[in-house]
Amino acid sequence: MVVIVSGPNEFEKARQGLRAARNLKRGRLIEDVRVFFVGPGVLLLDREGENYGLVEEFLQAYKQYGVRASACAGNLRAYGLEEKIDKNLVIADDTAAVLAEAVTEGLSIATF
Question: Residue 85 has what pLDDT?
Fold first, then answer.
C-alpha cells in the first residue's frame, strides 16, 4: 500500500509515490497495489489544483491496472473536496478501516 500524505507543497515527493504504485503494478512486481490519500495528500485530488492533470494520469493508470485508489473521507470533508473528486477514479473511505485492512492482510505500507 502506498500512502500519499504529501500535498501540493511537496508535489515531487508525492509524485514519487504515485509513480512507484503505478510501476509496481504495471511491471507486475506486486499483485495487490493500493494507493491511499490522507491529510494534505487529498488536496492533490482537487480537479481545480495545478497538479491535477498529472495526478489524473496516474489515477487513470491505476484504474487500467486494477490498483485501488482511495482517500480519507474525513480529510476530503475537512478540505471541502467531497464533491470535487472524480468518484470514478477515487473512493472515499475511512482511514482506520483502510489501515486495519492493510495490516490484517499483511500489506507493506510505504508513505510518501
Answer: 96
Under 8 Å between Cβ of 79 and 38: no
Sheet hosting strand 91-93, strand order edge to edge:
91-93, 68-72, 34-37, 2-4, 110-111
> Using CA atoms, how far apart are residues 39 and 37, in angstroms rounded to an integer?
7
Q: What confidence tier does 8 reach under pLDDT thresholds 50, 70, 90?
A: very high
pTM of the model: 0.95
Nearest to 67 by CA among 104, 10, 18, 106: 18
Contact partners, residue 90, CB within 8 Å, separation at least 6? 37, 45, 59, 69, 70, 71
